[in-house]
Amino acid sequence: MSAVPNPEPAGTPDPAEDIDPAAAGSAPLDHPLLATITGWLGAIILGEEAAALLRRADAGDVPDVDAPETVLSAGQVWIWRESRIDVGRKSRAGGGRTYRMPVRVRWGGGHLRLDRPGSGDPRAWSARGMGWSLAGHTDLTAPPSGLTQAGDPSLEPLPGAPRETLTRLAETGRAARWEFLLWLQPTVNSALRKAHAGIRGEMGTDTRPAPPLVDQVKLEQLADLMLFGDGETASSADRLIALCCAPDTFLRVDPLRYLTTAVRRDAATVLRRAVGDPHIGRKVRQVARELGTTDVARVVAAYRRRWPEDHLAAERAQQALSVGADPMAAWVRVEG
């Protein structure tokens, strides 16, 4: 998932516009959209860890969870730094200011920890991404130490009984997952429309455009499939969330670029599968256009000379050349 296909909801104000430049000076700002996205991802990460701790507690593997003297602490999930890699215009806030990018933190033993008073050892942490590689350690009673600077990750005690707090974190994580999916929905819809326009472009000519392959209802069904799955297998969005929550996903790319690229790739895959187009269909049709023929034998021979490693068979070539319009697509015009 290059440029972001208008991920902000319509009418969303730019938070930087409300900042008084005189008050802000030249201090860098946290990127506002990325702060929202990483807020959801951080809640999902803590929620999954909390749910895992509760399962272990119910199995008797974590007896301290219900002890009155137990303290539950949480390590910060993201810290913010000015990027040392190229992130394009996302680093520019206007007015001479810059945006900071999120850097993922990894804690030894996980972000959540249960301790008895006085028993907690210092926690090691590392943070990598956006060109940064930091490390240090901290505990609940001392400031961070190590290869640190202001703004390094904190370790905070969480108020309340640990079991109740863990339950609340798990619920918050589930709610954050739904908020993320709802935010992602316009991006998925846009990616499917662009994938549909791309395949139609491959099949048509300058003088004879290809008809729509699917109707608007089918595109909406495919968007639901990408976001919510079919009840049997994980959805594309579920897999994307899991990747975004992995510690090393954003080492060399910012989250917005990663999300946009992944959604576009998955949308093209889902749509091609829905219309029966093999994954090499685009290249097959490219060869057919260059030859000026749809003769399968000639197309396969030319294709094999160019991409012998694909081992193209006549059956797959025929599939790629036979992708056609859904008869129902004529009922609803699909915007390219």
UniProtKB/TrEMBL annotation:
Region (Disordered): 1-25, 136-161
Compositional bias of kind Pro residues: 1-12
Protein name (record): Uncharacterized protein
Species: Microlunatus ginsengisoli
